[in-house]
Amino acid sequence: MELIERDCPDTVRRHLSAEEAAAVRRFCGEGQQVRPEDVRLVEAVLEEMHDGRHVRLWLECDCVSAAGGRPRLTARVREDGPRHFVRMHQYGEHHCALASFRQTPEPENAGPEDGCARRGQHNPLRPVADALDYLDNLNEGAARPGGSTGSEGGVSERGRRLPRLRRILHTLLEDADFARLHVDALNENSRSWERLEAYAAGQALSPRLCLSQMLYFRPWTPLNEKMMEIDALPWPERKVRSALLLFVADEIRAGVAIKKTSMGECVVRPEKGIRAGGRDQRLTQPPYWVLSVVDRDRDGNARFREAFAQHAYSFARPVPLDSRYERVTLKLLFGVMAWVKKHGVEVTLWKPLFDREVRQTDGPSLWCRPDFELTFRSVTAVGVAARLHRVVIETMGADDPDYLERKSRTQEIMKRRGILIEHCVADDADQKERDDAFFRRVAAKILHLAGVL
């Protein structure tokens, strides 16, 4: 294996040692036994490849001898998470243990019920690690209803499999930057589909296929036309020919997602129905992000097979949400961000779609998924390093004892990530007073931590 220059791929920076190469293959090869020393070696290689902001080096695998046909790995950092490897499909497939790739090794013998075993000890919810996993495997996707295909779903905090379409949807929205909003973006009128198109164009599924060729954003596109485009594409082996439609729906009713256009209503009616994310299972609080699978049935007819829907804050700012209660909280947080900027503090808002890691010096990492996180830096003198601060926001939308007990367990972990502030939302006459108190508390905490007050 060789580390090569990203900007000059013909230049070899260095060869990996035999120990490093073996560690990478054990760490990222499905079914491989990871040794304790592998983690240190792999982390060092990743740090050499990615400086925390930019990719400097690629890792070229020597399992293929032909020049110009060797498969490569790059490094990525999602938000404030650790560095990890990503396959680069446009450079060919591996002929070694990395042919069956995993982003990070999971605990031995972990099963779907491990999610609720002990606090922080479940398998964390992670994004889709490999772009090829956006496609169904043969004899798998079409036969399984509801989008819960195969073993690629994440494990939820209550021990159930995260629906596969939801995991794909969250990965797309997170990687295309819909789960993050800097205060300066509050006044921007960016076009969502342009951001998605730019992201999809850079994701290779195979040497001759990129995500933008099978992911589209216009629900008025005729199904037969789209599937004929798919039929004409070079397709990876052992994968079903299908497309993904992603859009923001104006309304969902009776199993139908509706996009209103100047030409009338555009209707998406999946054969296997629409699953709902979050707490709004009746889908009565639009707008919604909708991700639908388009393929052919057993008779060869193009169809919408299934779909998954998730709250969006608004059409102008389609931040994905879990409930209408979060929409109330987010509106207040937008106001806080704008207000504290007048005092010189610039806040970035995150809507975590996957688990966040809380590292411990004396034990294994813990994992949690807050409703929102606010990050900002201290206001300091010129030349002085500004400290990064984090405020964790939790929306409390119920008083059920089981709900509160689950929240209390996860909130103990959240308090290790940052300052935790709760916002209670209920449909009563006292909500305005609670909203005002929440606004003042969050704004005051930000200004205090930033050194303004």
TrEMBL record:
Residues 139-159 are annotated as: Disordered. It comes from the Bacteria. This is Uncharacterized protein. It comes from Paraburkholderia ribeironis.
